[in-house]
Amino acid sequence: MTETGATSHHALNDAPVEVSVDVIVFGGGIAGLWTLAVLQKAGYKAVLLESQALGAGQTRYAQGIIHGGTKYALTGKLTASSEAVADMPSRWRDCYEGNGEPDLSQAELLSDAHYLWSTTSLTSRISGFFASKVMRSRSTELDSKSLPAIFQHKDFKGQFYRLDEPVFNTMTVIRALAEPRKQTILMIDPQTLHHEGDKLKVSSSQGVDYRFHFKKIIFNAGEGNEELISRFKSEQPRMQRRPLKMVVMRGVQDDMIYAHCLGASVNPRITITSHRDAQGKVVWYMGGQLAEDGVNKTDIALVKAAKKELSELIPWLDLNGAEWGVLEINRAEIKKPGTTRPDTFSIEQHGDVITAWPTKLALAPVLADELVDMLQADNVEKSTDQALPEWAPPVYAELPWDEDPCWLPPSEVDV
Ligand SMILES: Cc1cc2nc3c(=O)[nH]c(=O)nc-3n(C[C@H](O)[C@H](O)[C@H](O)COP(=O)(O)OP(=O)(O)OC[C@H]3O[C@@H](n4cnc5c(N)ncnc54)[C@H](O)[C@@H]3O)c2cc1C
After folding, report:
1. What are the boundaries of each domain within the chain?
2. Does ligand 1 lie within 6 Å of residue 344's CB atom?
3. Ligand 1, closest atom to CA 31?
4. What residues are paired with 141 via a beta bridge?
5. What backbone torsions phi and psi does residue 200 show, to the nearest 5 degrees?
6. Which architecture, in CATH terms, is 9-413?
7. Which of 88, 134, 159, 287 has the fewest C-beta atoms under 10 angstroms from its C-beta?
8. What is the pTM assigned to this prediction?
9. CB-based burial label for 14 (10 Å; 0-12, 13-18, 19+)
10. SS3 letters across 328-339
11. Is the shortest distance between the CB of 71 and ligand 1 below 6 Å?
12. pLDDT by residue (tens digit) across 7-39?
């Protein structure tokens, strides 16, 4: 049987369904789906294989900020490679406005800008940086009347900047990318993967066996790249995980806030974005240094630290009766000697297999462009026959705060 119920002669012989493609992309996060869109636009016959649910990895945990390089510039690392990121806000905005490829007009833009505030006067180094030409074009200092509502308070004493960085609902981006291409996305059982030469055998999550004949494979599977690399009997490239423990809070604030708070160091003390849960309640999602340090804390200690940060940074906020939760997630990136945190995307090719990590959601477009350029440079031929078998449609992941286990019992966090 095929997945749609029709009988095929392959199935009668218990043989796998044979499918010829140019490229197989593994992983339906932002990197895989953006790459699939760009490959198909360039004329390649490409399919995407997903093992869990579209968006299920880091992408649904991302805060959705399309960085324009402010963070790198703050740490003094606005180098040639991180310059690539400077174009990302306008690139994503064009796609959202329907003027760019791929079309993201069906995605939800949560905020047109991201903000940066400091509780006291910024240190001279940072003030100097804000006065620099590069930052003048990307940020605007706000006067008290233009502040987001929550900061229009007599006790707010700091400085406030608007950064040219849109914030997206990441799962709506995943849907906007996947829906128009869903016939080319197959849900697989990753345990059935078997690779020999230019063929790859795999069963779909519905139990139908396929044998793909391919020219190139791209691993865009985030943390899953490591297992795929070893399944393909390779040791390269190496991957590193950098864990985070993010905090969620809901139930008492209806204000939507999208901002980093800078303390004495150039790393944000806290980065807050706002989202809606399945019931429509506003969820504050908190990362930054709070989440980096959270890795060494128990959930209860981390929530305590989050409450303390908020009461110092926004003291007029009433958090009585709030619900709190903790989300643990690893960032997955290339591991390179001498670097602890890569500041741009990475791509490595070994034989016919390319492994890629975007490092940032924001960088998915440049990652995908580079992958297509590599295929063109390798003269990968484009099939004229684009037909594929019909298979079951893909499934989508939930946003992480819509999963019950992340919320802590009030009795534990109210003390
Ligand atoms: C808490 C947090 C906040 C972040 N915030 C931001 C932000 O605001 N802005 C920003 O630019 N970046 C941000 N990032 C970084 C960003 O989320 C990641 O760089 C990006 O989402 C990685 O996308 P990806 O597609 O490579 O991987 P993933 O999103 O992890 O997707 C990998 C996919 O591959 C699938 N998969 C795994 N194994 C297999 C297999 N064997 N076969 C098939 N499929 C497989 C998974 O199920 C998953 O769907 C954040 C990251 C974290 C953790």
Report:
1. 9-413
2. no
3. 25
4. 161
5. -135, 120
6. 3-Layer(bba) Sandwich (3.50)
7. 134
8. 0.95
9. exposed
10. EEEEEEECCCCC
11. no
12. 444 444 579 999 999 999 999 999 999 999 999
